[in-house]
Amino acid sequence: MTDLIDLNNIHLTLADKAVLNIKSISIPAHQCTLITGRNGSGKTTLFKVISGLLKPNRATIEYQGLTLPWKKAKPILQKDFIYLHQNPYLFDDTVLNNIAYGLYRAGESKAVAHQKVMQALDWANLSHLAHRSAKQLSGGEKQRVALTRARILSPRLLLLDEPTASMDTDAKQQTSELLQRLKSEGVSILICSHETHTIDHIADHFLHLENGELTPASSSKRTSNVTVLNPSKKSI
Ligand SMILES: Nc1ncnc2c1ncn2[C@@H]1O[C@H](COP(=O)(O)OP(=O)(O)OP(=O)(O)O)[C@@H](O)[C@H]1O
Ligand SMILES: [Mg+2]
Question: What pLDDT digit, counting tens, does each position of 106-133 carry?
Fold first, then answer.
């Protein structure tokens, strides 16, 4: 198993409170890691640090053969990783244009961008939403559109913050299938979720965050598969 990224000595204080105190976390490439933890345990904060969106007090990043302080790694993390918020932001336009936006910014022509978006929507079984207003979508539809938008940008790591929260059973099932397919396509995935029963079967590694500290987690169904990431480093 190869690690995509290792983060060491992550410390973050917010409003005088130590929110993260993590000796080391290693995220395996092409696999799915599930992080559980109570409300306020620091999951979202950790995801923002890993995706280059929130500056920790300190952290060292080992990525692509380089060891960098977080500040130097920040632009690389922002370019290569995509953090998907629990309530993804979609602007007031069609689904097609929302998904195409990143491609336009990357310099893709309108015709090519639209072709790629239609293929991606087909992949997600969402072709019927292409010309709908993104603002009118349900929460579950928005999440799957945001997942499609993230996939089209080919991130090296997809960080999903509660991807199935407030979804009905069908939407959870469809999202879970999309995540399974993303994983089989080789995308590295980091998920935090309270819905372990929905995500359990996709995850290869299980971690638990409590008061800003990581511990190995037990899956409700797969306790035998609990894995301490990078155990040789005594990482947590
Ligand atoms: N900007 C901020 N200023 C001060 N404290 C903050 C800030 N953002 C988060 N916190 C605190 O940091 C802690 C961790 O918050 P975080 O959102 O990471 O938790 P979480 O595990 O994602 O929770 P949830 O399961 O509810 O989404 C909480 O105690 C929260 O109140
Ligand atoms: Mg959160």
Answer: 899 999 999 999 999 999 999 999 999 9
> pTM for the full model?
0.90
According to DSSP, residue 30 is labeled: T
Atom of ligand 1 nearest to the CA of 212: 14
The per-residue pLDDT for range 36-94, each reduced to its tens digit, is: 999 999 999 999 999 999 999 999 999 999 999 999 999 999 999 999 998 899 999 99
CA of 232 relative to ligand 1 center, distance in Å: 30
99 Cβ contact partners less than 8 Å away, ≥ 6 residues apart: 117, 120, 121, 145, 148, 149, 152
Instruction: State in words which class domain 3-89+154-233 has.
Output: alpha beta
Which residue ranges have their beta carbon within 6 Å of ligand 1?
14-15, 19, 37, 39-45
Domain boundaries, the chain: 3-89+154-233, 91-136
